[in-house]
């Protein structure tokens, strides 16, 4: 399955190669579709492909590291 | 036969077939419906529209369905009221209230978007509709799904007040409470939408759903006698409505139904959740998400899906954005009720409060036409006014007691001048 998310990196994590790490640690294919990185914030539109379980682990890894993970639809609870 | 041509990415312009898609496969940009405007121009005129029944489907060539609507035939054409008492109170010359507090059937503007979404979902072959909502959207999805014989699933945060759920459960919707933080609940809903083959109105049906909002703008123009108001103030939650009101004005201009596009749109948010207003005021493109803290729950979207586009729309039209505190929201709800006899929900308090502020700031001139968008009914958010209104005096069942009370009240009013 595929899941599309937006990652928001806080300033202190911008230099961390977290997407690479996710690819090493979990059986997911990462595919960056858009990115905007400055010295204060990093925004990445990412597609994750793999089993549901592995994708969940990858998202948990990002979250634990302090990266905000959101669906590309952003807030949908209206 | 409809005039919808395709879906098009708002970012890169790639076109997609008219299916249940909402995001560009290439750049993840949102998809929007495009129409055959040249063909529409041949069919649609002021006269043609005026002969049709008074509901939002009188603009059906500009709505994204191929066949006939399957639900919500009575939605829309809500009153546009010349608010003469409010004009005096605010010191302005020409002010109108577009009143979707009385929209059919669930008393909010959401019935416009939902009836389009469900009609489109039905013609695409879906049998289940769904949404994640804490209020108006849930009510509308549940009611409209019931009315056209579709099953509905509504997702809510587990700690939502029971009174908020009644207006959804009563229609037979399957309501599921989800434990977790807002972000977790939000993410799960997106995952459910991706996994189950349902019509999730504001996710995979979003391009069609959002188009329903245009009818709010079309009606304003027609009800004003085929002219645009100079200034339109619109509440912003996800930010979609303001972009669609602006799109409506532009489509009417493109089709020659109005002579000019001399109008500005203004966005209204509560101070406790104002990510779009902040971006407009700071002149920034990026919307910084916030954690909402306001009584205006129906506008409490911290990371608005159309935030970027609504800020862009405001800039493009030459309008502005402003926010008001919870106290100002309550004051505005009371002002509208006391001057015009209209009881709006908190979102309406935000919109009127912001209008007042923009007039006082001189951003909206006092001698030009103004429309205030009221999008929901006050009966749904009565808790916001608890303890904020006059206490009710109680007397014994005696005429003497009442005489004394009248005397006291007269004295009180005399003192208040």
Description:
Chain A has 78 residues and is α+β, with helices and mostly antiparallel strands. Chain A has a single domain, classed as Alpha-Beta Plaits (2-Layer Sandwich). Helices cover 28% and strands 40% of the residues of chain A. Chain A is built from two helices and four strands, in the order βαββαβ. A four-stranded antiparallel sheet of chain A has the order 2-3-1-4. The mean pLDDT of chain A is 92. With 417 residues, chain B is of the alpha/beta class. Chain B has two domains: 4-71 and 110-209, 3-Layer(aba) Sandwich (Rossmann fold); 80-106 and 213-385, Rossmann fold, CATH 3.40.50. A six-stranded mixed sheet of chain B has the order 4-5-13-10-11-12, sandwiched between helices. A four-stranded parallel sheet of chain B has the order 8-7-6-9, sandwiched between helices. In chain B, α10 (240-254) links the parallel β10 and β11 (264-270). In chain B, α3 packs across α13 (326-340) and α10 packs across α12. Chain B is globular and about 75 Å long. The model of chain B has no long low-confidence stretch (mean pLDDT 95). The A-B interface holds A 1, 3-4, 8, 33-34, 41, 45, 59, 68-78 and B 22-23, 26-28, 110, 131-134, 136-137, 155, 157, 182-183, 185-187, 189-191, 193-195, 202-203, 206, 237-238, 286, 289, 298, 301-305, 307.
Task: Detail the topology: elements first, then pairings.
The complex is a heterodimer of chains A (78) and B (417).
Chain A: E1 2-9, H1 18-25, E2 28-37, E3 42-50, H2 52-65, E4 68-71
Chain B: E1 4-9, E2 15-16, E3 31-35, H1 37-43, H2 46-50, E4 80-82, H3 84-90, E5 94-99, H4 110-123, E6 128-132, H5 136-147, E7 151-157, H6 162-169, E8 174-178, H7 182-195, E9 199-200, H8 206-211, H9 214-223, E10 231-235, H10 240-254, E11 264-270, H11 275-282, H12 307-317, E12 321-324, H13 326-340, H14 346-360, E13 369-374, H15 399-416
